[in-house]
Design a protein that fits this description.
two-stranded parallel ribbon, two-stranded antiparallel sheet, 2 domains, mainly alpha
Length: 390
C-alpha cells in the first residue's frame, strides 16, 4: 500500500473526508448562494477568494455559471425553463442526474451572461478558474494522494460526489418535492428537515424561496441554519457583513384601524400573512367542516388543508378535481378559499397606489367580518395589528 505524508487510520480518514466536504458546502451556501447569487451579505475579499479557490479545487464549478443557473431557477421556477425542477423533469431525473442538468445549463452561455451579472471577472477568473476549471480537481487529487496515500483517492472521490449529490440532487430534487412548508411560496419548495449539517442550512429550502434575499434561512425557533452560524462568526471577526435578513412582522395590539402603515406591513410580510391565514383560518375551519362524522376526520382535514393552501396552478389534474369537489360540498370552505385568493390579490396589484391598496385591504376586511365565519372574522381583526419591521 502506498503511504502518504500523514499516518491516519480509516476512521480518521472518514473524519477528514467529512471535514473537507463540510468546508465545501459552507463555500457553496455562504459564498455562491447567499453572497453571490442573492447578495444577502458581503464577504471580505480574502474570505471570498478562499472560497473561490476551494471550490475550484473541490468542484470545478465556475461562479458565474452557478449563479446564472441558480438565478434562472428562481426566475422560472417549476416551469419548463427551470434548469432543474423535479415538478417538470421528475424527481429521479433531478436527484440522480443533477450534475448533468447543471452541465447542460452551463452550456447556455447567453442565459449565464444574462443572469450572472455582478460575479467575479478579474484576471484569475478569466485566465485560470474559468478556462481551466478541471485543473483544480486534478490538483486536489494529487494533494489527497500526497497526504493520505492510495486511500486519498477515496477521500477525493467523496469530495467529488458531495456537491453533485447533496446540492444538485437532494436540495434541487427532494427540496422541491417532499418535506414541510412554513410558507406558501408560489413554487413547490419544501424544507427537508428542521436542522442539518451535511448541507449547510440549504435543507430549509421553502424558507429560502419565501425570502430569497435573506442571509438567514431558518424561520422557526427549532430550525437550525448552520450556514447562518458561520456567517455570524465571520461577522464577529470582520470577514462578513449581512445586508438583508427576513424579519417577522411586528404587531401593535392596540391598533383598531387599517391604515397605510398596515398596508405596507401586510405587503412586505405577505408570506407571514399567508402562513398565519393557513394556521388561524384554514386549519380550524377544515377541522370543523371535516370532523363531524368521518372516522378519520383529522387525517382528512389535514389533506383538505394542504389542498386549500396550495396555489391552484401547482395542483395536478386529480388534486384540482378533488379541490373542486370539496369546495362544492362546503360553502364555508369555499368562502375561506375565495377569501385567501382575494387577500393575495391585494398585494398582487403592484401598479396600484397606496390609496388603492388601502381601500382594497379595508374592503377585504369588511367582507371577512361580514362572512359569519368566526376564524375569518378574527383574522381580519388581527390584520389591524400589523406594523412594518424596524
Amino acid at each position: 500500500m502506498i503511504d502518504g505524508i500523514t499516518d491516519f487510520v480509516w476512521w480518521q480518514l472518514i473524519l477528514v473526508a467529512l471535514g473537507l466536504t463540510h468546508v465545501t458546502i459552507v463555500a457553496v451556501t455562504v459564498y455562491l448562494h447567499r453572497c453571490q447569487a442573492h447578495r444577502a451579505l458581503e464577504l471580505h475579499p480574502l474570505l471570498a477568494h478562499f472560497f473561490r479557490f476551494w471550490l475550484w479545487l473541490t468542484t470545478g464549478m465556475v461562479t458565474a455559471e452557478w449563479v446564472g443557473i441558480h438565478r434562472r431557477h428562481h426566475a422560472r421556477c417549476e416551469t419548463p425553463d427551470d434548469p432543474h425542477s423535479p415538478q417538470v423533469l421528475g424527481l429521479p431525473k433531478v436527484l440522480w442526474e443533477g450534475a448533468e442538468l447543471y452541465r447542460d445549463a452551463s452550456r447556455d452561455h447567453e442565459m449565464v451572461e444574462r443572469y450572472a451579472h455582478g460575479t467575479p471577472d478579474d484576471w484569475i477568473e478569466r485566465h485560470l478558474y474559468k478556462p481551466y476549471n478541471f485543473v483544480g480537481i486534478v490538483v486536489m487529487l494529487l494533494i489527497d494522494v500526497a497526504l493520505f496515500g492510495i486511500l486519498g483517492v477515496a477521500v477525493w472521490a467523496v469530495q467529488m460526489i458531495w456537491i453533485p449529490f447533496f446540492a444538485a440532487g437532494v436540495i434541487n430534487g427532494i427540496g422541491h418535492y417532499w418535506g414541510y412548508r412554513n410558507f406558501q411560496s408560489p413554487d413547490a419548495a419544501t424544507n427537508i428537515s428542521p436542522w442539518g449539517i451535511l448541507i449547510g442550512g440549504e435543507e430549509l429550502h421553502n424558507n429560502h424561496h419565501a425570502f430569497p434575499s435573506s442571509a438567514k434561512l431558518s424561520s422557526r425557533a427549532w430550525e437550525f441554519d448552520i450556514g447562518w452560524m458561520y456567517i455570524r462568526l465571520f461577522g464577529l471577526v470582520g470577514l462578513a457583513r449581512v445586508r438583508r435578513v427576513a424579519r417577522a412582522p411586528l404587531h401593535d395590539q392596540a391598533k383598531s384601524v387599517i391604515d397605510v402603515e398596515t398596508v405596507k406591513a401586510v405587503v412586505v410580510h405577505r408570506m407571514h400573512v399567508l402562513a398565519d391565514y393557513a394556521h388561524e383560518v384554514i386549519k380550524p375551519v377544515a377541522y370543523a367542516e371535516m370532523c363531524r362524522s368521518e372516522h378519520h376526520c383529522k387525517r382528512l382535514a389535514r389533506q383538505v388543508r394542504r389542498l386549500l393552501v396550495r396555489e391552484e396552478g401547482s395542483l395536478d389534474a386529480s388534486s384540482r378535481k378533488r379541490l373542486e369537489a370539496i369546495l362544492g360540498q362546503s360553502q364555508v370552505l369555499a368562502t375561506v378559499h375565495r377569501s385567501r385568493k382575494q387577500l393575495q390579490q391585494v398585494w398582487d396589484r403592484t401598479a396600484s397606489s397606496q390609496e388603492a391598496l388601502l381601500a382594497a385591504l379595508q374592503q377585504w376586511c369588511r367582507d371577512a367580518e361580514d362572512s359569519g365565519i368566526k376564524a375569518l372574522q378574527e383574522f381580519a381583526r388581527s390584520l389591524r395589528s400589523y406594523q412594518p419591521a424596524l
